[in-house]
Amino acid sequence: MQSPVAAQDFFDLIAKSGLLTAAQVRKVQDKLQLDEDASAEETARRMVKEKLLTPFQAERLLEGRYRGLVIDRYRIRELLGFGGMGCVFIAEDPDEDRKVALKVMSTEHSLDAGMLARLKLEAVAGMKLTHPNIIKTYRLDSTGAVHYLVMELVRGISLHELVALYGAIKWPMACDIILQIAEALQSAHDQGIIHRDIKPANFLIEQSGVARILDFGLALLKDGGDEEFSLSMVFGHDCLGTPDYIAPEQIVDSSRVDNRADIYSLGATFFVALTAHVPFPEKTNKAKLDAHRHKSARHVSDLKKEIPREVGDIVARMMEKDPAKRFQSMTEVAEALRPHAKRKTISFDFRELVTLRAKQAKARAETQGKKAAAAPKSSITSSTGWLQANSHHFADGTSGFGKVETPPLRSNDSESVRAESPRPSSTAPIRPVAFKGPAPSGWRLEFKGGKQRVPLVRSRNLVGSGYSADVRVPEEKVDATQCWIEFNGQNWQLRQESRLHPTYVNGSAEAYCPLKHGSRLSFGGKVQLRLINLTQEQDNRRRLTIVMTLIMLASVVGSAAFFLMR
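Now predict its structure.
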């Protein structure tokens, strides 16, 4: 369908989508009291501002895409993550009065026996398991055309994202994360379930430091004969897993592995958490697989001197080539880690993370078009290739790491299952601001003429023409999300967001630069802003007053002396 132009076209699409009934739409129209000639975009902005629609819903509707915003009883709110099987959304479950994660299989995979087997395996395994460190699976269902999985919503950052964005994790915290996952996997192993795809992308970590495991789509079940047969027919018996983390015996025959294969993969994941490197950074998947079978990874304590030798020995034992030489259970792994583990809270902005994933998903859809990925991914999120994409910018003012592209973990990011050709590395990022405290007091952005001063109360402030901007600059040559003014704990800095309009700092176009008291920002038009520090400004005024007073006193004294001399 064509994109809506007028407000009424937009309201018609909302009713068609099922997000609101016709009666509810009429109530919204009465509440908003829009002009007759209001545009669809203006209507969408008002509804987002009034929290009647989410930014995701508004953008979809403005694109003329109303189907898929309601699946059975679940109302889709926004994108949570994506992978080769499809997308995961945050959705409302009105029957249970809760928000859930809805994993929806993409249309190109709806008739794929292997993908359906994976989704069913994930559901069967997930519904069997109840553990505080395993994400709950509620149900598997289908509308006929759409297959979906309903899961517990966890507002976490994947271990892959955490390491890719912020680097290696301090060893006490890494020990705690791996300890939690080991205990969760022991619960799965006790019920005859081998995960077979342990890797950083399949762990979510909440801000409290609690780690959760997800995605049992490649699991080996004790009684999962039909699903395992379907997987083997599609993918083969050998090499079912992810090349950067797969156990040597799993490369040979994935259908005959036991719990010790998960121990090896968890060891490789532990290696990444501690070092921000994969154990074998070979250029091709074939070389990676050969390395897992025949090479030994470097001792992590040699790579990072601050890591105790005892911790490095645990990693090495988990990654022994011979399963008999490894720890024999996840309980043993957990007990070995316990003396070294320490729980730490994690500071990240979930809204920013969701927006970043959405940008990646949109960019990926635009670049791939209708082509399916050559080899499916088992994770629902991936941290490589974060790209910008044009949108209507219905952000909530806290979203976006800007032009950050999350790099792979010092290696080509691996596809799950099998892939014969390497993937290109991402560009190294400008790191997002890690400072999460409040902005220093007294800082303002002053509009030219001094008529308006906007206080900078947060460490990250969006400047743009959109209604969600912290500092709104309504001008043609200013994008809805023009730039960010960020405080890194020591200094302010500018980070350009718009790819359409430049931002000038003291007359020069800048993409990323430090700012100080008195820095002037302009955008190619009439509007200019000046960054000011009220304390420094007052100090300057006091100094000027003192100087002027001294000059006046000197003048008076000089005059008096002149008359006395006469």
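The two ends are 96 Å apart (CA to CA).
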